[in-house]
Amino acid sequence: KGDGEKAKVSLKEIGNEFSFNFDVTNITEEDVNFDKISIELLTDGYTNEADEYYVGDTIKLTENEIEEIIMPESFTVKSGETEKFTAKVKLKQEFLDENKKIFANGFFIDGFIELDMTNDETYASVPFTGFYGEWYNGNMKIFGKTTYDEGGSYL
User: Fold this and answer.
1) Which CB contacts under 8 angstroms, 24+ apart, belong to 41-45?
2) Model pTM greater than 0.85?
3) Of 1, 106, 132, 133, which is most buried with the most CB atoms under 10 A?
4) Arithmetic mean of pLDDT, 127-142
């Protein structure tokens, strides 16, 4: 469980570094060892048509955008117990600066932590989302003009 009792994590505003944790409870009668742990980081892509930018397909972040990820390679939860899982992410400032040129009011960084086992069907996936920018900037201009506003666009 992440936020409160929900199986998700809301990071709210994030910087180039963020961390989060969530509880994993083993309700089985045997210890569980997650030995295939991965993280997937996503953000909005964009297209440029005649010097106009439009939100495009979601893109998966790679080592070009990610500076560092710190999380366990394996994670064991004993039968009937709860353990806290922690992940730390550091994104490359160059990527954030370039993306901020397109998404001037900020953008979302979303993803999933996946806990899996090599020799078992036990699997858990925890979604998370954060916003890089000033969500509460007093003007709430995170969305700017829409395509329906004069001079507006999809961004």
Assistant:
1) 41/65, 41/66, 41/89, 41/91, 41/109, 41/110, 41/111, 42/109, 42/110, 42/111, 43/99, 43/107, 43/108, 43/109, 43/110, 44/103, 44/107, 44/108
2) no
3) 132
4) 74
